[in-house]
Amino acid sequence: MIIRTETTADYSKVFQVNYEAFRNREDEPKLVEKIRESKQFIPELSLVAEENNEILGHLLLSKAEVINKNISHEVIVLAPIAVKPEFQNKGIGSQLIQEGLRRCRDLGYGIVLLIGHPTYYPRFGFKPARRYGLELKQFNVSDEVFMVCELIDGKLDRIKGELRYPDTFF
After folding, report:
1. What is the value of pTM for the model shown?
2. How far apart (Å, rounded) are the C-alpha atoms in residues 108 and 124?
3. Residue 111 parent element (H or E)
4. In angstroms, rounded to a whole number, what is the distance separating the alpha carbons of residues 159 and 132?
5. Region 11-31: what's the mean pLDDT?
6. Of 59, 94, 122, 142, which is least packed with CB atoms within 10 Å of its CB?
């Protein structure tokens, strides 16, 4: 299996992976389409897991901002991640996340935020975000599912405020 950057030729397969992974709902695959068309899209951060010319998984990381009074910090949000149901629990999602975080760090992004399962994401360095002075008001979520991963030392000391997902997410 290889983890690589998504190409335009992958779009319909990525739609199908997200559709199947999210129980035949179109919300997530449509979100991917909207993000791709937005200014928050970073092509190098849309990753696929491929084996034998079949797309088994997809990860999308895109730009958002943390706002504190009049100061805005560009950050990355992870959403969505999808693996075909028959290939779940085989480490594909983990490989996608690890490569995605590596690429974010290489591109100079200091933190990645997400809303996700509190027992899954900590293995990648994610921690509850509110304890670091970060807030989320656009979605009503508990402390344990709103998480942050510091990719560049010291960034969590300098970035405080409210995470604002782009309009694309609504």
Report:
1. 0.96
2. 18
3. strand 111-115
4. 9
5. 97
6. 142
